[in-house]
Amino acid sequence: MPEHLNKLDYELEAAIVIGKEGRNIKASDADEYIAGYTIMNDWSARALQMEEMKLSLGPAKGKDFATAIGPYLTTKDELASHRIPSDRGDRYELIMMASLNGQELSRGNLKDMSWTFAEIIERASYGVTLYPGDVIGSGTVGTGCLLELNGSKITNNLWVQIGDTVTCAIEELGELTNTVIASK
Questions:
Q1: Residue 33 DSSP SS3
Q2: Over the stretch 13-47, which tens digit does the pLDDT of each residue have?
Q3: Rg (CA), the chain
């Protein structure tokens, strides 16, 4: 849609897929609810999002038009050699990167998440039932979006355009590549 293309941004994230039903799940048990891990590009229409935020509407229409996930679902046992256990839930040492038209712009590590997925599950399931197949994103990795890169002057007013290709990659999870096209 035209408004989505005004300051279109990618967001490099990891995501989990819930594997069993649960409600009010404690962080200490939450890793048992994860079926696997995948890549998420949580696209954002920044101009529309900023308008919504001025009106205290939250980023609803600036976020609810495209989310890409995949290409694989990687299970915990496949990531065992990258696992960093903690009392707050497991973390994983996995390099993350994003590129725009073949130029790497974003790089980070999944282990640097502010909150573990176990903590996120605890919060998300408070008073809410999570079901198998539910997808929960990690939040954007540091430097994992153009809004941050532009704000830090690493890039200069760079945004995703029609015809651009964005690749999000996470070690052991593969590469997710999308080309932007206008809706009909």
A1: helix
A2: 999 999 999 999 999 999 999 999 999 999 988 87
A3: 17
Q: What tokens appear for 124 in the block? A: 């998300």
DSSP H or E stretch at residue 138: none
CA dist 7 and 143 (Å) reads: 17
**Structure-token pair, residue 29:** 């048990």
- What kind and span of H or E run contains 85? none
Domains of the chain: 2-179 (3.90.850.10)
Cα(156)–Cα(153) distance, integer angstroms: 6
Inter-residue long-range contacts of 147-151, CB under 8 Å, 24+ positions, other chains counted: 147/9, 147/44, 147/46, 149/105, 149/106
Count of CB atoms within 10 A of residue 177's CB?
Answer: 15
C-alpha closest to that of 113 among 84, 71, 75, 78 = 84
Give the DSSP H/E element, type plus range, for residue 72.
Answer: strand 68-74
Judged against a pLDDT cut of 70, whether residue 155 lies above it is answered with: yes
- Distance CA(19)–CA(17), nearest Å, equals 6
The predicted pLDDT at position 4 comes to 72
What number of residues does the chain have?
184
